[in-house]
Amino acid sequence: MKILVTGATGYIGKRLIPILLNEGYTVVCAVRDKNRSPNNFKNDKNISIVEVDFLKPNTLINIPKDIDIAYYLIHSMSNSSTEFHILEEQCAQNFKNHIENTTTKQVIYLSGITNDTKLSKHLLSRKNVETTLNSEKYALTTFKAGIIVGSGSSSFEIIRDLVEKLPIMVAPKWLNTKTQPIAVRDVLSFLEKAKGNEKLYNKSFDIFGPEILTYKQMLLEFAKIRGLKRRIITIPIMTPKLSSYWLYFVTSTSYKLAASLVNSMGIEIIGNTSNINKILNIKPISYKDAVKNAFLKIEQNSIVSSWKDSFISSALKSDIHKHINVPTYGCFTDKKQRNLKDVNYTLNKIWSIGGENGWYYGTFLWKLRGYLDKLFGGTGLRRGRTHPTKLNNGDSLDFWRVIYANKEAKKLLLYAEMKLPGEAWLEFRIENDILYQTATFRPQGIAGRLYWYAVTPFHWFVFNGMISKLV
Questions:
Q1: How remote is the C-alpha of 302 from its chain's centroid?
Q2: 22 and 158 housed in the same domain
Q3: Same domain, 160 and 191
Q4: Per-residue pLDDT tens over the stretch 114-137
Q5: Nearest in space to 304 (alpha carbons), one of 395, 439, 225
Q6: Where are the beta strands (DSSP E) in 82-138?
Q7: CB 3.0 to 4.6 Å from 243: which of 18, 110, 172, 391, for a disulfide?
Q8: Global pTM exceeds 0.90
Q9: What number of H helices and E strands is found in the chain?
Q10: CATH code (residue 335)
């Protein structure tokens, strides 16, 4: 059986694909940029990767005709465009038009619970996408999930940031909104067990955990599990914009995602009961167990996917391969090199850079740069990294994005997502037992040039110290 997975590099897609492979299926991964595909995807003989932009119908020709089942996992939660709902429906329409001309028998769509009479723009958009995907040529199965809780999920990481950083929270009144969280493992079970099940053809089901909780209860339960005492005071005067900034400055979320979440968090996400749990023999676990499972994955360094690695958290407005060729004309550079005593030692140090390991030298200055970046609307350092020693193309790395990571070729290239009057790259490359470290900056106008001259003394201090630590 050949299965198409759209959104293959997203939070759910990265977790669903290994499950399908373990069951012996052939998987077609539809991605906007092949360079972002995890290395284990590229090396698996049962995976084929096709470049598709669902806003560009001509690219859909790359999808094979002999598809049996397709998963539609495309969302744009943080899209800042005021017309994002139009773009989402356009993606769905283009997908439908193409899939109707393949051998696909079933499309499985993951949406959000949309039962409240007053829906946010994002939830309403997901509801409209479901309507768009309905077809007479294939069967549509829709799962509408509550808030998804799992290691690396945006909901989990935001709650974690709030609980672990704030002993006392003065919070917006939407913390009293009721919701039904569901563990990511249960979402994956629904998606996996639904394939080919004719009882689910042309039907829609709400999927959710066993408890109805307010966001405040979720925070306090999280604190209890972590052994922390927390006090939450809700106030009615915090506007949506202030709420968004509150999430943005306290958590690792981007402002765009924070604004989208705030608009949705005032809506009750309560599911309608059905017989879906019985049909698929799934018993969703509690919120408490979902949180414990998430921390088990974190402690084992086995987080499969994180929302931070998707472009939801990114300032990058184009595919990463467009930044892989570092420019030279009109650029400033800071070049350093050192002879190596132990290539493997240095290579492992490079592949462990950032996150909790830090940048090895001038830690205070790196943190200061992160604070300033956050203050001016950038990503700051709080995204960290998903795995302490592994890097894939497209991963977030503090306020950098991994453009190229090839340990065998001994090269790592990073692109800056911090707020800058220009563009910046940081490259580590080993050749003939010599480490070459190059920082490149392409300025925009006079502001960019003044910026470079202002930070040059700090660059000399930090970059010189960093390369010395690496060797």
A1: 16
A2: yes
A3: yes
A4: 776 676 677 777 888 899 999 999
A5: 395
A6: 106-112
A7: 172
A8: no
A9: 14, 19
A10: 3.30.530.20
